[in-house]
């Protein structure tokens, strides 16, 4: 055990080392002016740092990891000028606290569902930021946001400030691409692969049709609208089936 | 309860046994486990009966086939309530199941009974056994059951809080319980919240997903859904404006004069508590000084009752320790719990299987990933699936890093409790935050990770993240643990304050169902990673650190040693993970609408706090029929009184700190 008090002295040595290390670290930043700008908060809270860690929050910010998740947003396809969401309802089902509310669009004449949300709400007072909606959406239409500084004036209606409606939720896919580059590249690759597959299938079909007496003209016309129309309508048949399956499962 | 004589006891089993078959005709072709077992022969339509393990077969042989019969799915049923104590004594003494891991109940509303489920286990290791008893639900929905279950507190001290919880949540009366009061809700709460016919405010439906969300989901704030409408039950004739019951009367009375607690009225409430003897009727008991010393010769000191908490920096959250002090010495201690109670288990039964994963993060929010692991492997056990190799490694890495960060936190705050304000705590919180940085970059969140899935995990580590983990595991954290030891282990003040404080010997610890570092600091090498291995822990080379002091100091040392062992595991896992296929993190197809085959399972893992168990019952649907969390923080508190009595009040704070509880898990 040694002399009484040596344990305490040893401990004080540790605090002293922390004290010195912190200044040494700060000195490094001051000497390396360029380091003050970008890498500072990065290095501040990293395993390499030796001193004390304080990121002075409003002035400095830690860079957010790509996977960071906060209240979700809906992706707007700037290329097609359309919401990506097909209002399939899966996110509303996987949402653990049930804070997603979707009104499906209906065709005014046929009353058949149109794959587009009419209204879309996320009640941020309830959202637990679990990320399931983004994870299970089959159309990459809902993503978790990086904007964690949500604050509102208390004079606003609770609906207005706490319940995000469709216009508040919708953000362009360019924004999504900027905060989730990896995810976005995967999406692009997936889409390209799908397109290629569809094309190949269409070609094979066209060939098969051509081989038959009917001739290629009619068959070739078929795949043409596919990228435009078939994309949103593809979920069409799948959707009701999904809904039925779910209905049946919960009596 | 005292007024209940033993006379009705022999009659009870008869009613219990009769009630079960009687309920059968009322639920024709019920999909739920049918009450099919007076004679122990499987009814053609009922759920499959358990095959008996050797221990249970021995039990059946000893007590006879009429008393012990195989239960549906798992375990045995004790048909004669009056024999329950005999059976459990035999289980403890002859079969060696010396620790009652878990007690809970299930409401089989269609069949008309409540089933109390016991999971005793051996502190030597191995799987727990399952023993069940049934009591009729009773005719009055808000009164406790007419038939009482004998309390097991004389056999297993660890049953005390768990039985109180069952009483609180299900209204099962336990006969012979020393302190049968509500524990998570307050005295005066109306109804039994975990019964299937009890509805919470804003009740919308029995199971999620709710139909109102899609396709016609017009949003409505929960508050606008008539908060005081049909969903809230008041006792008949209840007038909220004139409600002035003192919910703590029973608590203080039981501490002041040994008067039994407020008797339970016919409607399930504590009746207006009797005034404690010797205390003036109108005097509030909290600050009343009163004198118990019989011997006039002795120095007269006052005994006072002090409430520590719920808002008190020492209680690690909102917990209230009610201590009776003689001078500065604690002579009695009781806990008031439930300030963070949100009926996690009811929420869990409304949720689908998948919905529950992020909720488990919120149990013990310091080590969310370890909780997820416990839930996920229990459900996997029921579904009969296995995660991929890579997912197994990722899970272990995450769970062990969680243990390290949790222990950093525990030690930091133990020092706070000792009066070393924040310097050590912040040093260790720094390290913890570096681990949380890794969690955040992998899972997207620092605490509420929501990372594990049935059959896998949600995201793979990238190369950068693996490098971050390696840097932590091979360089930074080992260095910092050395530094921690330099700072604290030999510190004379710490030693003076902690050695011999909070002593609880091994046998008592086991009897109190203590688990985790506290049990291992008492010399019991019980760690589920070795005692009943799960996941891939059998592949790693690590030790279970054990110390023998059974005091606060050794609880600290066990935690430090465990951090080192966890590091070893993480290091090995990081070395071996290269042999697995990157990206292969989910077995089978990723799904959101899981169905779990009808059945039940008790699964447990070793979290940093101790044994975290999940008792799950499935009726084959999308939602758990029963979702019970065996919380180590909660059950470890059973032992707090015995550890604390006799110490100074300042030590009570330290002893509580050494248990390392998290109120999110205690109160659920
Ligand atoms: S899952 Fe995706 S596509 Fe379906 S409703 Fe939700 S956001 Fe829209
Ligand atoms: S993040 Fe989770 S809680 Fe929030 S809307 Fe999505 S699924 Fe619901």
UniProtKB/TrEMBL annotation, chain A:
Domain 4Fe-4S ferredoxin-type span(s) in chain numbering: 76-105, 118-147
Region named Disordered: 190-251
Biased composition annotated in UniProt, kind: Basic and acidic residues: 190-210
Bias type Low complexity, positions: 211-233
Extent of the signal sequence: none
Single GO term (MF): 4 iron, 4 sulfur cluster binding
Cellular component terms per the entry's GO annotation: membrane
Keywords: 4Fe-4S, Cell membrane, Iron, Iron-sulfur, Membrane, Metal-binding, NAD, Quinone, Repeat, Translocase, Ubiquinone
Pfam family, one: Fer4
Hydrolase is among the record's keywords: no
Name used for this protein in its record: NADH:ubiquinone oxidoreductase chain I-like protein
Lineage: Bacteria, Bacillati, Chloroflexota, Candidatus Thermofontia, Candidatus Thermofonsia Clade 3
């Amino acid at each position: 055990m040694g002399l009484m008090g040596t344990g305490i002295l040893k401990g004080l040595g540790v605090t002293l080392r922390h004290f010195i290390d912190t200044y040494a670290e700060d000195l490094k930043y001051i000497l390396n002016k360029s380091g003050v700008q970008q890498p500072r908060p990065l290095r501040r809270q990293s395993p390499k740092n030796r001193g004390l860690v304080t990121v002075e929050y409003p002035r400095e910010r830690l860079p957010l990891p790509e996977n960071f998740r906060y209240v979700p947003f809906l992706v707007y396809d700037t290329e097609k000028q359309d919401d990506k969401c097909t209002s399939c309802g899966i996110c509303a089902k996987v949402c653990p606290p049930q804070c997603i509310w979707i009104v499906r669009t209906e065709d005014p004449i046929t009353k058949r569902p149109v794959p587009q949300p009419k209204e879309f709400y996320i009640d941020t007072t309830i959202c637990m930021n679990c990320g399931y909606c983004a994870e299970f959406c089959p159309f990459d239409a809902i993503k978790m946001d990086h904007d964690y500084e949500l604050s509102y004036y208390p004079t606003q209606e609770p609906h207005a400030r706490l319940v995000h409606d469709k216009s508040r939720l919708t953000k362009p896919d360019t924004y999504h691409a900027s905060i989730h580059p990896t995810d976005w590249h995967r999406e692009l690759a997936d889409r390209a692969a799908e397109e290629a597959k569809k094309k190949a299938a269409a070609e094979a079909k066209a060939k098969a049709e051509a081989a038959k007496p009917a001739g290629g003209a009619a068959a070739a016309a078929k795949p043409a609208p596919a990228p435009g129309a078939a994309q949103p309508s593809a979920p069409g048949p799948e959707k009701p089936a999904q809904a039925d399956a779910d209905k049946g499962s919960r009596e | 309860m005292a007024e209940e004589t033993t006379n009705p006891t022999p009659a009870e089993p008869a009613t219990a046994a009769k009630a079960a078959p009687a309920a059968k005709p009322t639920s024709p072709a019920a999909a739920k486990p049918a009450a099919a077992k007076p004679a122990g022969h499987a009814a053609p339509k009922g759920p499959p009966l358990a095959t008996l393990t050797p221990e249970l077969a021995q039990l059946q042989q000893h007590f006879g086939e009429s008393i012990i019969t195989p239960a549906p799915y798992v375990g045995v049923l004790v048909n004669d309530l009056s024999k329950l104590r005999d059976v459990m004594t035999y289980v403890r003494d002859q079969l060696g199941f010396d620790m009652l891991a878990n007690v809970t109940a299930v409401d089989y509303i269609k069949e008309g009974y409540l089933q109390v489920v016991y999971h005793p286990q051996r502190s030597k290791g191995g799987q727990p056994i399952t023993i069940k008893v049934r009591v009729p639900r009773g005719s009055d929905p808000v009164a406790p059951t007419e038939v009482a279950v004998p309390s097991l507190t004389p056999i297993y001290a660890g049953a005390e809080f768990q039985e109180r919880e069952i009483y609180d949540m299900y209204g099962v009366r336990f006969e012979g319980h020393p302190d049968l009061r509500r524990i998570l809700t307050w005295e005066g709460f109306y109804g039994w919240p975990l019964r299937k016919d009890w509805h919470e405010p804003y009740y919308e439906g029995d199971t999620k997903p709710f139909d109102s969300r899609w396709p016609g989901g017009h949003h409505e704030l929960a508050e606008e859904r008539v908060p005081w409408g049909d969903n809230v039950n008041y006792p008949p004739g209840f007038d909220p404006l004139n409600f002035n019951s003192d919910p703590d009367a029973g608590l203080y009375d039981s501490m002041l004069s040994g008067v039994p607690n407020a008797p339970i009225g016919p409607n399930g409430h504590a009746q207006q508590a009797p005034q404690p003897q010797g205390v003036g009727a109108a005097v509030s008991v909290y600050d009343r000084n009163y004198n118990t010393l019989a011997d006039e010769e002795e120095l007269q000191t006052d005994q006072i009752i002090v409430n520590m908490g719920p808002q008190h920096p020492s209680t690690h959250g909102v917990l209230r320790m009610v201590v009776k002090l003689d001078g500065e010495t604690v002579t009695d201690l009781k806990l008031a719990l439930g300030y963070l109670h949100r009926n996690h288990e009811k929420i869990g039964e409304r949720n689908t299987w998948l919905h529950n994963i992020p909720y488990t993060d919120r149990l013990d929010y310091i080590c969310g990933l370890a909780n997820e692991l416990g839930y996920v492997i229990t459900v996997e056990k029921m579904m009969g699936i296995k995660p991929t190799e890579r997912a197994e490694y990722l899970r272990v890495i995450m769970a062990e890093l969680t243990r390290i960060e949790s222990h950093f936190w525990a030690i930091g705050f133990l020092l706070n409790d000792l009066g070393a304000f924040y310097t050590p705590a912040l040093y260790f919180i720094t390290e913890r935050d570096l681990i949380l940085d890794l969690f955040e970059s992998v899972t997207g969140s620092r605490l509420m990770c929501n990372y594990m899935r049935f059959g896998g995990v949600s995201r793979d580590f990238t190369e950068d993240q693996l490098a971050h983990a390696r840097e932590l595991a091979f360089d930074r954290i080992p260095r910092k643990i050395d530094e921690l030891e330099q700072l604290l282990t030999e510190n004379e003040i710490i030693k003076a304050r902690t050695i011999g404080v909070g002593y609880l010997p091994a046998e008592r610890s086991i009897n109190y169902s203590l688990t985790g570092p506290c049990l291992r600091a008492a010399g019991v090498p019980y760690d589920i990673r070795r005692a009943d291995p799960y996941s891939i822990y059998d592949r790693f080379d690590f030790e279970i650190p054990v110390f023998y002091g059974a005091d606060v100091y050794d609880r600290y040392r066990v935690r430090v040693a465990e951090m080192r062992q966890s590091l070893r595991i993480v290091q090995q896992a990081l070395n071996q993970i290269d042999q697995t296929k990157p990206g292969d993190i989910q077995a089978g197809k990723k799904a959101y609408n899981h169905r779990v085959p009808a059945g039940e399972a008790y699964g447990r893992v070793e979290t940093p706090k101790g044994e975290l168990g999940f008792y799950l019952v499935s009726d084959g649907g999308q939602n758990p029929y029963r979702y019970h969390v065996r919380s180590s923080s909660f059950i470890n508190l059973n032992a707090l009184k015995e550890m604390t009595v006799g110490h100074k009040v300042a030590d009570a704070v330290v002893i509580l700190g050494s248990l390392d509880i998290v109120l999110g898990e205690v109160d659920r």
